[in-house]
Amino acid sequence: MINHNDKEWHEQRRKGCGGSDWTHILNIEPYGCSRRLWYIKRDVEPDFAAVQTGSMRRGHALEPVAVDEFVWLTGAEVSLSCNPRADGIPEWMIGNLDRDVRPTGPFINADGKGVLETKTKSPYAMQPLRKTGVPQGEICQVQHYMTMTGRSWAAYFALDVLDFDRSYFKVLSSDPELEAQMIVAGDIFWSMVENGPSPDRHDPQDKCCAGCNYREQCQGDRLVLVGAPVGDYAHFEGSELVTLLHEREELTTLLRDAEDLKKANAGRIHDLVGEGKFVDLAGSRVIVGKSQRNYLDKSALERDHPGMVEKYTKPGIPFTTIRGYGKQV
After folding, report:
1. Across 219-245, average pLDDT
2. DSSP state at residue 235
């Protein structure tokens, strides 16, 4: 398996455009930014070091698990790829396939070997995948590998890291029209990398700019601190605080994932049992129904009875708050 922390691997990636670069090359919303990728390919020193989050490490570490699950699910045979290059493809087109898929199992009638692209996703990230299909950036990633190798088909497999039974699988065919558009866009971008100019920058309030580690040098004096209270801010050295803040973001995502899983579980129970049902299950009783939360309209109460809200509002238990204030226009 590729070591994504290896310095040589990162240097090789700067020598061309890989499959995962297409979200940025094509500025696919919400986080694609060709200007950021331009900085990376030109080896420009960022404003601060990028932090590899736990979800990123999870994706790399679970790649073999995702491959094994794909094989178990489909019965197909896979193998490590030698990353063959088709004739006539641009030199800037580089990449490493997750695996080759042989024409076996459900692919027995396929036209030669296919590309296997595996993903590992949280339950939250799996939801839009099931609703709208493979994201455009990942379709382009798979097309990149098909174009690079001359393959006509690919198997896309996304592993739900908390529930393998809810994973996602789709066969994709090479799209000549998309391939042509990508080669034109790639030629233009790589010419910018080698000769300039830089791609246009996004509006500083764009989502992709919020945590970008080239934000300061890209946006310059267009940025001002917005909303931060006046105070004596001390400069904080070291990476421990950055790590803790990223960990906090991931915990927030986990809480959101847990809520989504709980709602999905309730939906599956409802579909299985039905609404308004009383069920006796091995000595336990389960009631499946509907309920709703009510809330107090404090504005209306204050309007009809001035001072009432303040009179009956009591201080709660103190808790720690963490607020961030980034630079915006």
Report:
1. 71
2. P
The predicted model scores a pTM of 0.76
In this prediction, residue 110 carries a pLDDT of: 92
The pLDDT of 228-238, averaged and rounded, is 70
> Which secondary-structure segment (H or E) carries 11?
helix 7-13
Distance CA 4, CA 18 (A): 13
Q: Count the helix, strand and coil residues of the chain and give each as a percent rounded to the nearest 5.
A: 45, 15, 40
- How far is residue 114 CA from its own chain's centroid? 24
3-state secondary structure of 324: coil
Q: Produce one character per residue of 280-303: b if its CB has 16 or more CB atoms within 10 Å, e if not.
A: eeeeeeeebeeeeeeeeeeeeeee
Query: Considering only CA atoms, which of 110, 111, 58, 104 is closest in space to residue 79?
Result: 104
Q: Is the pLDDT of residue 303 over 80?
A: yes
CA angle 8–13–18, rounded 5-degree value:
150
Domains of the chain: 7-195 (3.90.320.10)
The two three-digit tokens of residue 286, written as one number:
């389960």
Strands 114-121 and 153-160: parallel
- For 224, residues 6+ apart whose C-beta sits below 8 A from its C-beta are 327, 328, 329
Please, which residues bridge with residue 119 across strands?
158
124-136 confidence digits (pLDDT tens): 788 889 889 999 9
Tokens of 70: 């794909």
* Helix or strand (DSSP H, E) at 277: strand 277-281
Average pLDDT over residues 4-26: 83
Closest by CA to 90, choosing from 198, 153, 15, is 15
The SS3 assignment for 279 reads: strand
